[in-house]
DNA sequence: AAGACCTCCAACCGCTGTCGT
DNA sequence: GACGACAGCGGTTGGAGGTCT
């Protein structure tokens, strides 16, 4: 099931995502949000197309993604919704927090399509964090990312009854909060001032919880979400600012230092 | 033991909808 | 209204891993 890595004619990488690419994407989205999927890979240092980054993030890397077998309740809900609205996978996915449309679609075709769930025939959910499928190939790094994401997810889910957590992913709120108004690819050099102004109006981005649902209910603070990334070294403090791309992160670093969570 | 076949799912592809100009 | 850019959606595919013979 792992696609062989390859490159298209534009030199963009295709196929399975590596742990390093996952790290870069997580790092970037955690820092800057997904303000523009098309431009994101360039700024994140990824040789991927924007669509691929979006898919990877939405289906596997975003913090509240649920992995593993579908429960009977979820199966029942999928069946009911499919009966009423058909193959509207994204709409169905919105009713199953943490499940991606892709996952539901696959589950439907593999288990539910023929009338009844046979998901019980799957003794153990496969490794959904698809950087390495073979168990013997799984590196410590993979395990670290898995546990990292589990921790990040746990932090969010702990504070949120899962059924009350709507889609899309909470972290995408970052982009809507911080960068959605910046259509320019070069938002960062001007956005600091803009953002600073918006934070004055909307509170302090770096100290206020930022993972919110549509109703504005707090899901997870920046600290809760980013700390595990930090501890595993997936997010590294920037070197002294020599690139304004690091400014937003620098503010976060300052905040962490101020709260004694980061030794600079 | 090993080859054939099957299952499942990550990822790709192409299309559509939305928004800004 | 026309056009382009972009995000999102749903169908399809590739292929690893499991099961069968």
Which features characterize this protein?
264 residues, mainly alpha, two-stranded antiparallel ribbon, 48% helix, disordered C terminus, DNA-binding
What can you see in these coordinates?
With 264 residues, the protein is mostly helical. The protein has eleven helices and four strands. It has helices at 19-32, 40-44, 50-61, 72-85, 89-94, 101-112, 140-158, 172-178, 187-202, 222-231, 247-258; strands at residues 6-7, 13-14, 211-212, 218-220. The strands form two sheets. It has a two-stranded antiparallel ribbon with strand order 1-2. Strands 3-4 form a two-stranded antiparallel ribbon. The longest helix is centred in the middle third of the chain and has 19 residues, at 140-158. The chain starts with 5 loop residues before the first strand and ends in a 6-residue tail after the last helix. The model is unreliable at 116-143, 152-223 and 228-264 (pLDDT under 50). The structure holds a DNA duplex (21 and 21 nucleotides).
Compute the number of helices: 11
Can you count the beta strands? 4
The helix/strand order is: EEHHHHHHHHHEEHH
Major sheet, described briefly?
Answer: 2 strands, antiparallel
Strand content: under 5%
Give the fraction of residues assigned to helices. Answer: 40-55%
The rounded Rg comes to: 19 Å
- Kindly report how far apart the N and C termini lie: 43 Å
| Gross geometry | elongated
**Average pLDDT value?**
58
What low-confidence regions span 5 or more consecutive residues with pLDDT below 50? 116-143, 152-223, 228-264
């Amino acid at each position: 099931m792992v696609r062989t890595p390859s490159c298209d004619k534009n030199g963009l990488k295709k196929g399975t995502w590596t742990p390093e690419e996952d790290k870069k994407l997580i790092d970037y989205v955690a820092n800057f949000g997904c303000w523009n999927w098309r431009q994101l890979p360039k700024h994140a240092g990824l040789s991927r197309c924007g669509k691929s980054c979006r898919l990877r993030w939405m289906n596997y890397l975003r913090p509240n993604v649920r992995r593993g077998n579908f429960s009977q309740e979820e199966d029942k809900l999928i069946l009911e919704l499919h009966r009423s609205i058909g193959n509207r996978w994204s709409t169905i996915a919105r009713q199953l927090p943490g499940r991606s449309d892709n996952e539901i679609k696959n589950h439907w075709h593999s288990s539910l399509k023929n009338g009844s769930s046979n998901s019980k025939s799957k003794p153990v959910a496969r490794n959904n964090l698809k950087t390495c499928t073979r168990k013997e190939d799984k590196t410590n790094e993979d395990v670290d990312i898995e546990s990292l994401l589990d921790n990040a997810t746990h932090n969010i889910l702990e504070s949120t009854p899962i059924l009350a957590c709507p889609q899309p992913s909470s972290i995408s709120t970052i982009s809507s909060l911080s960068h959605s108004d910046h259509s320019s690819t070069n938002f960062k050099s001007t956005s600091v001032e803009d953002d600073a102004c918006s934070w004055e109006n909307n509170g302090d981005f770096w100290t206020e919880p930022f993972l919110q649902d549509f109703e504005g209910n707090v899901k997870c603070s920046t600290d809760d979400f980013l700390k595990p990334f930090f501890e595993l070294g997936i997010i590294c403090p920037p070197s002294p600012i020599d690139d304004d791309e690091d400014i937003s992160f620098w503010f976060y670093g300052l905040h962490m230092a101020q709260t004694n969570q980061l030794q600079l």
